Amino acid sequence: MRQLRRSRDDGSAALEFITAGFLLLIPLVYLVLVMAAIQGGALSVEGASRQAARVFVQAADAGSAQDRAQTAVDFALDDFGLGATNSTMRISCRPNPAACLTRRGFVTVVVTAKVPLPLVPNVLALTTPLSVPMTATSTEQVSRFWGAG
Questions:
Q1: Residue 128, in any domain of the structure
Q2: Are 102 and 88 contacting, i.e. CB atoms less than 8 angstroms apart?
């Protein structure tokens, strides 16, 4: 009778498990970090535009309204860690673009910010983008009792 040959198990399963685990786990963890940063940035930009529109329509005059809106945007983005250097704010008004605080007029605030990718070194700044641009828009109506005019 012929004897069947059995292959020996040299105990490399643990090494294979660790290697495969790291090869799959590291990109998955980075993907979670990137998605968390993008989601946080999106929520921050949306909150900044909403709050800026709210404080703008409640201001007494257009000069203070602009300052209050910029302060609201800076505060909301600084809370997330984006800072004022990575963001822009644009305000438009209708029906009269020259007078934003017209009663029953609409004020639209657009906030754009760049959300940096986590764990990306600055050396790569020349060849790849290090941030994801986020934009949010909010529109508020000036009260018929509050605005000027």
A1: yes
A2: no
- For residues 113 and 45, is the Cβ–Cβ distance under 8 A? yes
Query: Degrees (nearest 5) of the Cα angle 127, 43, 119?
Result: 35
State CA 80 to chain mean position distance. 9
- Looking at the 3D structure of the chain, how many domains does it have? 1
- For residues 117 and 95, the answer to whether their CB atoms sit within 8 Å is no
Residue with more model confidence, 85 or 59? 59
Could you tell me which residue, 13 or 55, shows the higher pLDDT?
Answer: 55
End-to-end CA gap in the chain: 108
Taking the whole predicted model, whether its pTM rises above 0.90 is answered as no
Query: Is there a contact between 82 and 21 (Cβ–Cβ < 8 Å)?
Result: no
Residue 40, in any domain of the structure: yes
State the pLDDT confidence band at 146, using cuts at 50, 70 and 90.
low
Burial of 53 (0-12, 13-18, 19+ CB in 10 A): buried
Q: Name the residue range of residue 133's domain.
A: 14-141
